[in-house]
Structures are given as C-alpha cells and as structure tokens.
Design goal:
This protein is mostly helical. It is built from 9 helices and 2 strands. It is 53% helix and 2% strand. InterPro entries: Adenine_glyco, DNA-3mA_glycosylase, DNA_glycosylase.
C-alpha cells in the first residue's frame, strides 16, 4: 500500500487523487497557477474537501479560470455568481478573483505570472522534510515575502497562509511528508 501524506490517508478518493496527481506537482502555466491561487483564496476559512467537491462548478462558473475572460466580468456576472449554488458565494472572494485576474492580465501578460511566482525561488522547488502534517507550518518566510509582493502588486486574498497553501499546491514548495511516495 502506498504511503501518502497524513491528510490524504483517509478513505477519500477525491483527496487521494488530488494528492497523487496534482498537489505539489510543479506547474509553470500561468492559467493553472491562477486556478490554484483562486481555489486557495476560496478555501480560506473552509475545508479543502469542500473546494474539491465544488471544483468542477468553479471551473464552469469562472470560465475554466481563463483570467482574460474573468478580468472582464461586470456587476451582472458578479450577481450571477452570487446566485450560483455550485460555488462558494462569498462576494469578497468573487470580487478578489476578478481583481486578481485583472492584475495578471495587465501586469503579467504572456505567462509572466508564472515567471514572477517562480522567481522567488530562482525557478527551483523548495523541498522540506516534515514527518507529519502537524509539523508543516501554516506559513513560512517565503510565504510572507510572496504574500507581501502579491499585495504590493494589487492582489487580494493573498495573505501568508493562503499564499503558503498556493505555493504548496503549485509545487513551488514540496511539503510531501518524508514517508510519502510523492517525496
């Protein structure tokens, strides 16, 4: 039987699949990074399981995370999203998503968002060696630096905890536990 990170051990196939095929796998595609940043922002204060359960609804509601389209959302689209039972209907997070899409489109065109995010680690994955999920911090110094830079660029809902989760999900930080087969 494969050893996985503690959080993926329960008999939950959705969590196992996310762990096995996505979480911590380095990605350099700006659209994918935007999707992960958006989902982490919506997850803030909620469970990741809830986000995974609604992920396909998010993809449909937010035009498959095409930030060029999302940047053009207007008040009518915000109203539609606020009435969409398939997603988390938090107006601040919806508006933040639109704002973040606008920032990426204007300040980081042509996959420059990926270059910007990966520049904090010199285009290398930071590999930690934690024995359990309890040992993993809520955030670290890198997350503080990236969070501050994102906020200075105009991003919303990018505090250090959300940013750290985003860095883990996108493979910029490898926090798979030492006994995990993905390490």
């Amino acid at each position: 039987m494969k050893q996985r990170c503690d959080w993926a051990q329960p008999g939950n196939q959705l969590l196992k699949d996310y762990h096995d095929y996505e979480w911590g796998t380095p990605t350099t595609e700006s659209k994918r990074l935007f999707e992960l940043l958006t989902l982490e922002a919506f997850q803030s204060g909620l469970s990741w399981q809830l986000i995974l359960n609604k992920r396909e609804n998010f993809k449909q509601a937010f035009d498959d995370f095409e930030f060029e389209k999302i940047a053009r959302y207007d008040d009518d689209k915000i109203s539609d999203l606020m009435h969409n039972n398939g997603i988390i209907r938090n107006k601040r997070k919806i508006v933040a998503t639109i704002n973040n899409a606008k920032i990426i489109q204007t300040k980081f065109p042509n996959n420059q968002f990926s270059e910007y995010i990966w520049s904090f680690t010199g285009n290398h994955t930071i590999c930690h060696h934690y024995a359990s999920s309890e040992a993993i911090p809520k955030y670290d110094q890198l997350a503080l630096i990236v969070s501050k830079s994102l906020k200075n660029a105009g991003f919303s809902f990018t505090g250090p905890v959300t940013t750290y989760s985003f860095l883990q999900a996108s493979g910029i930080i490898n926090d798979h536990q030492v006994n995990c087969f993905k390490k």
